[in-house]
Amino acid sequence: MNLPNKLSLMRVIMVPLFMVAVILPESVLPDTWSRIIGAAIFILTAFTDFLDGQIARRCNMITDFGKFIDPLADKFMVFGAMLAILYKYDYIRSVFVWVALIVIFRELAITSMRMIVSNNAGVVIAAAWLGKVKTVTQIICIVTILLEPVIIPETAGIYDWHLLSYITMAAMTVMTIWSGVNYLKAYWKFLDPTK
Question: What is the rounded CA–CA span in Å between residue 63 and residue 25?
């Protein structure tokens, strides 16, 4: 159990803490504090994702367990955040539910494809730069949804538009689809539908 793997496990443990901070009723935790605490936990969780990969590569600490837990922790982090947002914030739910479905479908499809290609062809599908950009847009979108109402006060006149949240949702959706199509095109040849 090396340091990168401990960081990945810490990320998994932090997901329920984030979700609780976001979904607690306002009678327990006021909305502003819920958003700030949730965003702080999520940013720290996302930072551990960056940190564990850097340490594992630089210090040659890549393990089979790390290859398993790191992407799993990433999925928990993003899925947990999306579920908490869908549960709590009805003002964007009608759009965000479709964005979340696209992200969840893409993540599950590509993860399944990676397993099949790895088992059948012995090819390990490394994270492409588009996949990394997709992850960054997911993080930015979630943090923006949480903090936009805190940063832009109701008196600003544009508060009800939630413009930044919708822009980052669009960017995340585009990058999610683009990176998913890119992975499918690159590795489709390893998927044999006759087997």
Answer: 41
**What are the structure tokens assigned to 184, written together?**
């499918």
CB 100 within 8 A of CB 86: yes
Closest CA to 131 of 195, 187, 181: 181
Class for the domain spanning 3-190: mainly alpha
Backbone angles phi, psi at 64, to 5 degrees: -65, -40
List the structure tokens of 90: 């009805």
pLDDT band at 127 (very low <50, low <70, confident <90, very high): low
CA distance 113 to 168: 27
List the one residue out of 183, 106, 176, 108 whose CA is nearest residue 141: 176
8 A C-beta contact, residue 116 and residue 187: no
Prediction pTM value: 0.86
